[in-house]
Amino acid sequence: MHVPNPPGVEATNGRLADFDQHSGSLLERALFNHRRTVLLLCLLVTVLLGWQATRLQLNASFEKMIPTGHPFIANYLGHRQELSGLGNAVRIAVINTQGSIYDPHYLEALQKLNDAVYLLPGVDRAFMKSLWTPATRWVGVTEEGLEGGPVIPDGYDGSRASLDLLQRNIERSNEIGQLVAFDQQSSIIYVPLLATTPDGQPLDYNALSQQLETLRAQYQQDGIEVRITGFAKVVGDLIQGLRQILLFFAAAIAITAAVLYWYTRCLRSTVLVMSCSLVAVVWQLGLLPMLGFELDPYSVLVPFLVFAIGMSHGAQKMNGIMQDIGRGTHRLVAARFTFRRLFLAGLTALLCDAVGFAVLMIIKIEVIQDLALIASIGVAVLIFTNLILLPVLLSYLGVSERAARRSLRSETAEAAGAIRHPAWRFLDLFTRRRWATGCVAIAALMAAGGYVVSLDLKVGDLDAGAPELRADSRYNQDNAYLTRHYGASSDVFAVMVKTPAGGCSSYDTLKRVDNLDWQLRSLPGVDSTNSLALLNRRVLVGLSEGNPKWYELLNNQATLNMITAGAPRGLYNEDCSLLTLYAFLTDHKADTLARVVDSTQAFARENDSEQAQFLLAAGSSGIEAATNIVVKQASHEMLWWVYGAVCLLCLVTFRSWRAVLCAVLPLMLTSILCEALMVWLGIGVKVATLPVIALGVGIGVDYALYVMSIVLAEMRRGSSLSHAYYQALQFTGKVVMLTGVTLAIGVGTWIFSPIKFQADMGVLLAFMFVWNMVGALILLPALAYFLLRPQPRSAPAEEQAERAQATRKSPSTAKTVRRPTGLEVRHEG
Q1: CA–CA dist 462, 464 (Å, integer)
Q2: What is the dihedral of CA 226, 231, 234, 237, to 10 degrees?
Q3: Which of 115, 161, 172, 686 is the most buried (most CB within 10 A)?
Q4: CB contact set of 37 (below 8 Å; sequence gap of 6+)
């Protein structure tokens, strides 16, 4: 029984002896005429890079997470020496569960923990603060005037008298709500961190997190409880969760392998496809330490994406070779034919993937730029492992005869007169006017509705605490405790006020700072504030025998100078040229940060002068606000670049702007619906989720390229859209369906991950895999009905033969009917 040759391949008996070894492109001849050399080189590279992969480090950097080129961050970095402790810091809350902090046992444990933390590598010891540090002082009004000293009294011995004196000192220190909880059952050890350790090495956040956990376990006993928050702890928890992330990766790989074997029923080809995709991951991981890269908790998901892309391309190559072998073609000839048909489409698809990653470079945040480079490296190696190495390996090993026959089961049955598979009959409906019109109309309505919903998409975190972790994680429970019990949260927004040297205490400057202080304090989401102007008000009350009527900023320069001279250095720098206003926020949600930024910027525009310039912004919330601004600016610019590059590559490949529209419009619909899904799920656009939007475009275009390349090849041979689309379904479409569903199931398992940002990425990627597949199989042929027309060329040889045979049977009584393929043929009436 005759089964037609696949699209784009001349008729051949498939025998190796009859095949011209010098046919094909120069690249094809270079690879397949020197197969042993290719395999030996790949083996040597795999061994070398596999050894290099063992040197790969997993770490994170605070400065890589922030947009260093943004004006807010430039202001912060320019005054970092005067603002130590306002960037990367850890807060450790030590709680007495059996009473108050005025307990000898509690204070002894606090002192020991304070001393242990003080000695940790990477701690900025000069700015560390707790009840036991000398910088924590009190100021009070006595009969003799203002007095002050360390909060822990001289000669403290744990006696009742010492504890009573300590309580009075704390009450006069203005630290309740900041270092001491409102209920006075806990106090904080504030630990600012340096970027490097004393030996010059980058701070190892995983090691620091483990050391903090060791101290927690050591001191959390006998009524003492320890809670820890801060960037270093978040990163440490993410790195600790890596083992569970790897388990989900393994599950996804196992699911993919099982489904691929179910589809092929060929163990050797399944193992080869899996192996080549894993080799790509090994090459990628091996290249990273050679190029000076590290993996961080955000780029650790990239190797799986590379594996997923490799599986998609590998399955296409394997399917093409399997079908050719089923037609009786020798495995080497089948490998060369498949390479000839699909290399250009595969190369274009991988270049689109690479563009989707590379465009992330426009986002001036180093962690995203590193992710873009790491992913681009992975896509580059796929060109060698899945487009070259896999066909060469299959040319030696081939596939089992049973699997080869099974791959042509539907074509063989149809050639024998059987009805097409229901799925193919259903998909063929979208090549007809009625169904195509309905499909395009529904897609347009979905795009419009999705766009309206996506207008509510927020930039930044939408939840309190660390959104990268689950709401019930230990870190977020610790953060919730600190938020409930302290007015000075870890979400600090700091405004720098630059003045001439010695001008920080001038009345005019302090008055402006005081006005901004009151303005910020009235905003929703601002718990409390602190500034030199506020200190002047409090001290003036103290100088006036505690009379609250004097809670005012006195226009007396001598008094202001006197108060400034005794103020803590955290409120101004040594030469009195920089003031700092602190706003302690209830959370770092996008709306909260936007309100504070807008209010401060409006105030700065109205009040900036030569004597005082209001600079944004330092503190954890100031840095996050700058990050949100950069992400917002880059999110849509990034999509313009991605789609522009994808359109250009598709145009080079298809040489038809109509075909480009057919391929790209389904991707655009998926992008719009993905943003609407993020609104519905309460996921904001941020450093962890922004790359997914770009990656969905790059990965999704693979499906459209494989389907459209076959459709175009057939239509240029004169086939109808229906026949061309059916050929594409038989040759590449069913593998698109297979990989789309399989990969969606694989990443869908991530929803159970304890790492929330991995769960979010899993949901978004699964959605994109499915919708890009649906777009390529349903919306693409519907659009092609309106945009593409068959070329006026001669029909393929097998179609001509079929028509001639039908005509010879009975020309006088023949009539025209439409076959399920959509071709007009004549047969006996």
Answers
A1: 7
A2: -80
A3: 686
A4: none
The model's pTM: 0.75
Token output for 245: 């992330």
Is the distance from CB of 208 to CB of 232 less than 8 angstroms? yes
**Mean pLDDT of the region 243-263:** 79
Look at residue 618 and give its three-state secondary structure.
Answer: strand
Whether residue 343 is predicted with pLDDT greater than 90 in this model: the reply is no
CA dist 91 and 732 (Å) reads 56
| pLDDT, mean over the chain | 79
**Residues 306-328: pLDDT tens digits?**
887 888 778 877 877 887 887 77
DSSP state of 82: G
Query: Which pair of structure tokens corresponds to residue 637?
Result: 């610019």
Instruction: Order the strands of the 89-96 sheet from edge to edge.
Output: 186-192, 89-96, 224-230
pLDDT over threshold 70, residue 819: no
- Maximum alpha-carbon separation in the chain: 127
Are 579 and 451 within 8 A, CB to CB?
Answer: no
Give yes or no for a cis peptide into 617 (omega within 30° of 0): yes
Which range is most confident: 359-363, 440-444, 612-616, 769-773? Answer: 440-444
The CA R_g of the chain, rounded to the nearest whole Å, is 34
**DSSP assignment, residue 129?**
B
pLDDT at 142 over 70: no
- What is the length of the chain? 829
Tokens (6 digits) for 42: 């790949």
Cβ–Cβ < 8 Å for 93, 186 = yes
Q: d(Cα 194, Cα 89) in Å, to the nearest integer?
A: 9
Position 126, amino acid: A
CA nearest 707: which of 799, 790, 788, 778?
778
- The H or E element spanning position 78 is helix 71-78
What is the DSSP secondary structure assignment for residue 360, as one 8-state letter? Answer: G
Q: Report residue 121 as tokens.
A: 């590598």
pLDDT in tens, 661-696: 888 899 889 888 988 988 888 888 877 777 777 777
What are the φ and ψ backbone dihedral angles of 614, each rounded to 5 degrees? -95, 115
Asked whether 543 and 146 are in contact (CB, 8 A), the reply is: yes
CA 696 and chain centroid, separation: 11
Q: Tens digits of per-residue pLDDT, 18-65?
A: 676 777 788 888 888 888 998 999 999 999 999 998 888 777 667 777
CA distance 215 to 621: 27
The secondary structure element, H or E, covering residue 530 is strand 526-530
Environment class of 794 (CB within 10 Å of its CB; exposed 0-12, middle 13-18, buried 19+): exposed
Beta bridge partners of 826: 816
Q: What is the mean pLDDT of residues 538-557?
A: 72
In angstroms, the CA 414 to CA 767 distance is 34
Strands 224-230 and 145-150: unpaired
Q: CB–CB of 509/497 below 8 Å?
A: yes
User: Which amino acid would we find at residue 750?
Assistant: W
pLDDT of residue 84: 57
Cβ pair 493, 714 in contact under 8 A = no
d(CA 455, CA 753): 29
CB atoms within 10 A of CB 20: 6
Locate 410 and state its tokens: 């539907």
Asked if residue 720 lies in contact with residue 822, where contact means CB atoms within 8 angstroms, the answer is yes
| Positive/negative CA dihedral, 338, 340, 341, 344 | positive
Tokens found for residue 283:
């090459």
**pLDDT tens-digit map of 372-396:** 888 888 888 888 888 888 888 888 8
DSSP sequence for 545-582: TT-GGG-S----HHHHHHHHHTS-GGGB-TTS-EEEEE
Type of residue found at 660? V
CA distances from 10 to 7, 14, 153, 333, 726 (A): 9, 10, 94, 12, 19
Q: Are 383 and 705 in contact (CB under 8 A)?
A: no
